[in-house]
Each structure stands twice: as C-alpha cells, then as structure tokens.
DNA sequence: AGGCAGCGCAC
DNA sequence: GTGCGC
DNA sequence: GCCT
C-alpha cells in the first residue's frame, strides 16, 4: 500500500528545466502550492545554502538549525507567527506507519521560535514509495531552518515553462530546413527521480502548431530564464545583423524619449544575443524571453524584405542624426540633446558659438574632447593606464589588488573608457585612499580633469562624521565605495623634450581618455568587481533578480536585505578579488558566468 | 493594470 | 526635482 | 514592449 504523505511543498529549483517531470511530480505527489500549508519541503537540492535560498525566495527567512541536540534557546528573537510550519512532521492522514518518529528532537514547548522547516531530498519520496512506507527522514535531510521572519511579499514567480508560450498568430513559418542540434546531451540533472510509478503521458494533443514548435531547435535551458544574469551572453552571436537593426531602433527610441521602448528593445537584444543558433523563423524567435509579437514581426520583415522599416527611417532621419550627434557628447543625454535641438542648434559649432555658457561643465569637457572620447581605447592602452594606476596605488600603500573591469573584461577588442576596481585586504588601507591616489596622479599630470569624485565611504574633507546619519544599515562597515571619474592623458610622448625646446607650450598629442577608478573596501570587493564588469542588462537583471527572487538589494557596494537593510556577507574567507566575485555568484544562487559571457548590450 | 535597477553627483 | 553616467 |  502506498504510504500517505504529509502535505508537501515541491521546490521547483533544478526541476524547472524539465517541466514535464515537474508536472508529473506535482500531480503524483499531492503537493500544496502554498508553502505555509506544507509540513515538508522536497526538492532536488543537495546544498544547505541552496535550500535556504529557495526558502527565501518563497518568503521564508531561515537560519540553519544545527541538528545536534536541541540548541540552547538563546533565541530571543520573537517571531510570533501563530500558524507556521510545525517542527514536527505530522502525517496529514491516518494510516501512516506509527513508528515513524520523524521529528528529530523532541520538543515539548511549542514556542514559535522552535518552528523549523525541513527540506528533504526528493529521493526520500521515491524511496518511501518503493518501500511502501515513509522512510525516516534523517538520511535525506538537506536543511533544517528556523524561521527568523517572514519576508515581505517575495513573489514565487518565474515558472519557466517553454510549453506555456502561447502560439502566436500565423507568421508564415519558414520551414526550418536547417535543423539545429544542441551541442551537448540534454541534461535532466542526472540523478533525476525517474518515473517510478507513473508512465509519461502525452501532455499535448499534437496540432500543427505544436508540430511547428516541436520542429524547432530546443531552447537552451538558460534561455528559459528571463534574467540575463543567468545566461551566458557572449560578445558575438549568430544573429548579429538582426541585432544591429534592433539596436538602431532602440537608439531611435532613446532619442525620442521613449524609455519604455528602450527597455523593451534592450531586453530583446540581450535575449537574442544569448541565443546560440541562427534564427530561422519568427516562431522560433518568439519563444525567447522579451521577444513578443512586435520583435517577431520585425524579424520577419527583416528576413523577407531584407530590411526593417523603423530602422531605415531612423537612419535616414536628419533630425535624429543631429540628436545622436549631441547625445554622444559626454554629459548630454536624451533630454539635453532635444533641448539643444529645440534651441535651433544643429552642430557642435552651434553649441560652442551660441550656448557655451549655458551648458554644464561636464558638457563643456564633453564638447572639447568630443572626437577624442569617441575614439576607442585598444586593450593594450587600457592595460597601460591600469598599470600606472596600480603602481601609484602601491607606491602609496603596498598590497593593492586590481581588476580591470568594464568592456575590457568582457573581452572587447577596444573600450570606450577604462574601469578599474582597486581594493586592499587591509580594511584600513582603502579608507581615505582615493584622495591621495588622485593627488599623486595629478602631481605627475596624468589627470587633466575630475568629472566626479564620490567619497561616501571615506572622510570627505573637513567633516569626518558627516555621513554617519546614513550608516545604520551597514553595521561596522563602510557604506559605500569611493569612485572617481576622470579625464586621463598620458603625460609623455616620444618627442616631448624636443618639442618643448622649440615651443614651451607644445601640445601633448596623446588622446584624452575617460577613466573610472573605484576603491572598494575589501569585504565587498567581489560585489564591486561584479557590479562594474557586466553589460547594462546584465547588471540590471542582477539587481532585479536579487530583489524579486531573494529579497536582497544588490549593488557594487554590497548585498543587503531589502526589509531591514542589514548587510549580507557573501564574501567571507580568504581569496583574491576574483574568488570573492565567485562567492557572490554562488551566494546569490547564481551559476558562475565568465565576464566574457556578460555581453548583454 | 502596474512595473520596468538603482545610486550619487551636478545643476 | 531632473538629468546624467554607470 | 513585454511580463505577471
């Protein structure tokens, strides 16, 4: 006789890429869909940390219960939730084997703080089925957590079923003559709990639409995620020509002030950029996250007509060309570009002649070095600049570590600016350091302008305690990082001495470059590196993922809880900056992505 | 039918 | 508060 | 514009 199971909540994690199996299990096990009704949580999880993360996603903030004897109840935290997951597993129906003492430690006092939630390996379920009775849970217990607090509403969203993609209206599907094959075997997660009792059923009646779907190359599993931070997005992809069109439309929308459009096109670009096959049909495209009917229509036009109308219009619109020219001035965004345009200005000369005093200092610098800032920086020069910075840093205080981030780290052959993150294992070394570094670089004439210097972290001039009001969230730590955005120019050139002899005001011919220097406290340096390395969408989605899925707030200064702002340390332990960055990935429940796989733009 | 990242700076 | 860059 |  099959045993009767207590109410079970099934974690979708690691099952979500196999929706059929997930559905089978959900039906076979009589799962509850609200974790609060469950006595037990099952999942294909092996790691405590992962289990805790998954619970957090569901709105349960837990701390591990060490399964030795009952911990001393020093727990004064009072989380008075009346109904909660009981500490004991009480089968919900009669007829279960009486001998199963499922609770680990006998607890007579049912104080709320004793409430724990247990996460078991799915194998417990299959094993129990096979045995015809409920097995002891000890061998299968992955994680036992005491509920610290219920988090606000953290949505259990993201179901990720490819089959739920709604069939689009007939877009004459170019028959996929060219079949694609995945590069590797499908991974179901090896140890999957195959089918003991229930034979696989047909989930769908086969309509022609379904057949069209079935004929498509399978979507790589990572593309089931709507978060680009969960996908490898290489610098180059098979659909770059189409992407170029989308990027043109996106920029046109940007110049027109259509923020939402920009967002939508950015999402679509990021998804297509991570798709490893050459697209063969609009239907195929419409399966990707962020790619709906509009994007599919654009692809169809592009494929059949050879061009995309909106992109053509953008290219040939002279007003847009002017807006774009202005927009490329450092310090000029979409709003200022249109503002300039509305003043009747049509060229950089117009700005200089008619508006020089009315534009900001940043914009003046942007105009002055317009051509130079648009020149790409070869990797070699990026490295040169970075090594100067590191040398100067170490000259002030030895032991600095540096990672060159930005496009360089993503593998681009050249960059628009230079981003370096510096840190030092000694916490004190980074404090108040940026000013010193800037002064020494200025002394040797590397820096021609400071665009911004932000020092929330360190002492800002006279007022050492000025920022303390904003510190309660980061206990015993720094709240932020120091950041300088500079105009950089190599001070020497081959014929310098000669030139100066002839003319004391001889011009330095080296190109002016924009350089970001970030000084991060060691304990959050992994976050800084991560936060400064990804493409725009990667970084956006990272923040979004943290908020939606984990209830965390991520930025380059660290990870904090959303509800109370408490700092979450994901970087504990030895290791260099890159190790710390990896810890952040795993602490956030994310698969490692090499920087070269964060090219979402 | 609401949300879309979220921060610090200049102005 | 808005605009900007990241 | 797409998602939930």
Automatic annotation (TrEMBL):
<keyword id="KW-0548">Nucleotidyltransferase</keyword>
<feature type="region of interest" description="Disordered">
    <location>
        <begin position="64"/>
        <end position="108"/>
    </location>
</feature>
<dbReference type="GO" id="GO:0003887">
    <property type="term" value="F:DNA-directed DNA polymerase activity"/>
</dbReference>
<dbReference type="InterPro" id="IPR001357">
    <property type="entry name" value="BRCT_dom"/>
</dbReference>
<dbReference type="Pfam" id="PF14716">
    <property type="entry name" value="HHH_8"/>
</dbReference>
<keyword id="KW-0227">DNA damage</keyword>
<keyword id="KW-0239">DNA-directed DNA polymerase</keyword>
<dbReference type="InterPro" id="IPR010996">
    <property type="entry name" value="HHH_MUS81"/>
</dbReference>
<keyword id="KW-0234">DNA repair</keyword>
<dbReference type="InterPro" id="IPR037160">
    <property type="entry name" value="DNA_Pol_thumb_sf"/>
</dbReference>
<dbReference type="InterPro" id="IPR029398">
    <property type="entry name" value="PolB_thumb"/>
</dbReference>
<dbReference type="InterPro" id="IPR043519">
    <property type="entry name" value="NT_sf"/>
</dbReference>
<dbReference type="GO" id="GO:0046872">
    <property type="term" value="F:metal ion binding"/>
</dbReference>
<dbReference type="InterPro" id="IPR002008">
    <property type="entry name" value="DNA_pol_X_beta-like"/>
</dbReference>
<dbReference type="InterPro" id="IPR002054">
    <property type="entry name" value="DNA-dir_DNA_pol_X"/>
</dbReference>
<dbReference type="InterPro" id="IPR028207">
    <property type="entry name" value="DNA_pol_B_palm_palm"/>
</dbReference>
<dbReference type="Pfam" id="PF14792">
    <property type="entry name" value="DNA_pol_B_palm"/>
</dbReference>
<dbReference type="GO" id="GO:0003677">
    <property type="term" value="F:DNA binding"/>
</dbReference>
<keyword id="KW-0808">Transferase</keyword>
<dbReference type="GO" id="GO:0006303">
    <property type="term" value="P:double-strand break repair via nonhomologous end joining"/>
</dbReference>
<protein>
    <recommendedName>
        <fullName>DNA polymerase</fullName>
        <ecNumber>2.7.7.7</ecNumber>
    </recommendedName>
</protein>
<feature type="compositionally biased region" description="Basic and acidic residues">
    <location>
        <begin position="75"/>
        <end position="84"/>
    </location>
</feature>
<keyword id="KW-0539">Nucleus</keyword>
<feature type="domain" description="BRCT">
    <location>
        <begin position="117"/>
        <end position="142"/>
    </location>
</feature>
<comment type="function">
    <text>DNA polymerase that functions in several pathways of DNA repair. Involved in base excision repair (BER) responsible for repair of lesions that give rise to abasic (AP) sites in DNA. Also contributes to DNA double-strand break repair by non-homologous end joining and homologous recombination. Has both template-dependent and template-independent (terminal transferase) DNA polymerase activities. Has also a 5'-deoxyribose-5-phosphate lyase (dRP lyase) activity.</text>
</comment>
<dbReference type="Pfam" id="PF14791">
    <property type="entry name" value="DNA_pol_B_thumb"/>
</dbReference>
<dbReference type="InterPro" id="IPR022312">
    <property type="entry name" value="DNA_pol_X"/>
</dbReference>
<dbReference type="InterPro" id="IPR019843">
    <property type="entry name" value="DNA_pol-X_BS"/>
</dbReference>
<feature type="region of interest" description="Disordered">
    <location>
        <begin position="171"/>
        <end position="199"/>
    </location>
</feature>
<comment type="similarity">
    <text>Belongs to the DNA polymerase type-X family.</text>
</comment>
<feature type="compositionally biased region" description="Acidic residues">
    <location>
        <begin position="64"/>
        <end position="74"/>
    </location>
</feature>
<dbReference type="InterPro" id="IPR018944">
    <property type="entry name" value="DNA_pol_lambd_fingers_domain"/>
</dbReference>
<dbReference type="InterPro" id="IPR027421">
    <property type="entry name" value="DNA_pol_lamdba_lyase_dom_sf"/>
</dbReference>
<dbReference type="GO" id="GO:0005634">
    <property type="term" value="C:nucleus"/>
</dbReference>
<dbReference type="Pfam" id="PF10391">
    <property type="entry name" value="DNA_pol_lambd_f"/>
</dbReference>
């Amino acid at each position: 006789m099959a045993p009767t199971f207590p109410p079970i909540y099934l974690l979708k994690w690691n099952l979500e890429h196999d929706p059929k199996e997930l559905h089978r299990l959900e039906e076979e096990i009589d799962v509850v869909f609200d974790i609060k009704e469950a006595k037990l949580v099952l999942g294909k999880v092996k790691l405590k940390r992962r289990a805790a993360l998954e619970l957090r996603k569901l709105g349960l903030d837990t701390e591990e219960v060490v399964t030795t004897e009952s911990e001393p109840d020093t727990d004064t935290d009072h989380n008075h939730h009346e109904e909660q997951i009981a500490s004991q597993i009480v089968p919900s129906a009669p007829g279960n084997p009486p001998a199963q003492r499922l609770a680990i430690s006998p607890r007579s006092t049912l104080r709320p703080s004793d409430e724990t939630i247990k996460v078991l390996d799915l194998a417990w379920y299959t094993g129990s089925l096979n045995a015809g009775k409920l097995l002891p849970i000890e061998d299968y217990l992955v994680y036992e957590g005491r509920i610290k607090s219920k988090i606000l509403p953290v949505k259990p969203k993201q179901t990720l079923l490819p089959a739920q993609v709604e069939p689009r209206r007939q877009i004459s599907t170019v028959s996929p003559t060219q079949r694609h094959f995945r590069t590797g075997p499908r991974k179901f997660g090896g140890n999957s709990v195959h089918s003991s009792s229930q034979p696989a059923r047909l989930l769908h009646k086969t309509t022609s639409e379904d057949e069209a779907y079935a004929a498509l190359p399978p979507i790589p599993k990572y593309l089931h995620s709507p978060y680009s931070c969960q996908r490898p997005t290489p610098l180059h992809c098979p659909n770059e020509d189409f992407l170029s069109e989308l990027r043109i439309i996106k920029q046109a929308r940007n110049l027109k002030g259509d923020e939402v459009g920009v967002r939508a096109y950015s999402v679509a670009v990021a998804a297509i950029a991570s798709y490893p096959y050459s697209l063969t049909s609009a239907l195929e495209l419409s399966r990707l996250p962020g790619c709906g009917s509009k994007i599919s229509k654009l692809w169809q036009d592009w494929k059949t007509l050879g061009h995309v109308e909106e992109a053509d219009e953008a290219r040939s619109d002279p007003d847009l060309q002017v807006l774009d020219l202005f927009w490329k001035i450092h310090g000029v965004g979409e709003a200022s570009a249109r503002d300039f345009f509305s003043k009747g200005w049509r060229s950089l000369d117009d700005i200089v002649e008619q508006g020089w005093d009315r534009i900001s200092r940043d914009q003046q610098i942007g105009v002055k070095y317009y051509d130079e800032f648009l020149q790409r920086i070869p990797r070699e020069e990026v490295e040169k600049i970075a090594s100067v910075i590191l040398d100067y840093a170490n000259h002030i205080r030895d032991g600095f570590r540096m990672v060159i981030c930005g496009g360089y780290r993503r593998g681009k052959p050249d960059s628009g600016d230079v981003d370096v993150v510096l840190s030092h294992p000694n916490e004190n070394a980074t404090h108040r350091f940026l000013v010193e570094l800037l002064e020494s670089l200025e002394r040797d004439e590397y820096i021609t302008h400071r665009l911004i210097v932000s020092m929330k972290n360190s002492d800002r001039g006279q007022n050492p305690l000025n920022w303390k009001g904003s510190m309660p969230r980061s206990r015993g730590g720094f709240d932020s990082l120091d950041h300088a955005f500079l105009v950089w120019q190599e001070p020497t050139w081959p014929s310098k001495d000669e030139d100066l002899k002839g003319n004391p005001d001889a011009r330095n011919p080296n190109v002016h470059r924009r350089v970001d220097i970030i000084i991060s406290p060691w304990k959050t340096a992994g976050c800084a590196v991560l936060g400064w390395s990804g493409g725009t969408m990667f970084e956006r989605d990272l923040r979004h993922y943290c908020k939606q899925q984990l209830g965390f707030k991520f930025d380059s200064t660290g990870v904090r809880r959303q509800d109370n702002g408490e700092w979450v340390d994901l970087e504990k332990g030895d290791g260099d900056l890159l190790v710390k960055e990896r810890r952040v990935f795993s602490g956030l429940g994310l698969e490692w992505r090499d920087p070269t796989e964060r090219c979402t733009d």
